[in-house]
Amino acid sequence: MDQLSTEELASKLHSNLLPKHVAIIMDGNGRWAESRHLPRIAGHREGIKSVREIVQACSDLGIQALTIYAFSQENWNRPSHEVSALMDLLEYFLAEERTNLIEQGVRFRTIGRLEDLPPSAIQWVRDTEQATAHLDKLHLTVALSYGGRTEIVDAVRKILRDAQERKLQPDEVDEALVQQHLYTQGLPDPDLLIRTSGETRISNFLLWQLAYTELYFTPTLWPDFRHREFFLALLEYQRRERRFGRVLSGTISS
Ligand code: FPP
Which among 62, 73, 76, 192 is most buried, taking Cβ atoms within 10 Å? Predict the structure, then answer.
């Protein structure tokens, strides 16, 4: 595979075996910048270009949903200048990309505690959500001030509030009900999770939703993760057999 061109890799993809929903932990921006003696924010800026390419690739391939981890709750602990630079970049991304998103049929949404963000960033997010609400070629979900455990806590709170209002019985709580109260309500679970930069952790991302997801870890740093790297991840996904805990017909259990 390593010797093949990006076009040759693309031609090996089977359109009927593509994931419906891809989730990505975009990691390694800081290391990309530091290895070039640049400030960390230069890595985040370059990372935006990868976001743009992967959104385009998903839209072109007909992948239905892409969910990207842009800012975790833990990221608030970074130096304040890096936090505010990341918030500025979010606004810059939305200002630059809104028209492209609309042209590509992308519906933009966010998950996480959006209320933690600065008011101007919240406004950009809300306006973009509104401007793309009628589109559904690709559902792009950006996780902002997101934590997987917090998402489950928020779901439990909503369920308890519902229970107080309409006397929900404990036996009525099942997996489907929990799912309906998650931030990702309405989206299918991811088929493929990609994490860049060589780390092999989930880092509090989509804890509930990743139960049966195929995991793909690559040493490539996020700013270097472009079409070619994405196609390699999709080809690896296509080679895997997804059993969801079952034994597939024709296989011998041992
Ligand atoms: C991890 O790299 C990346 C982030 C914390 C932010 C990801 C953000 C972007 C790609 C740009 C903003 C995206 C949008 C959609 C506006 P790191 O800084 O943890 O890298 P390191 O592990 O090498 O230090």
Answer: 192
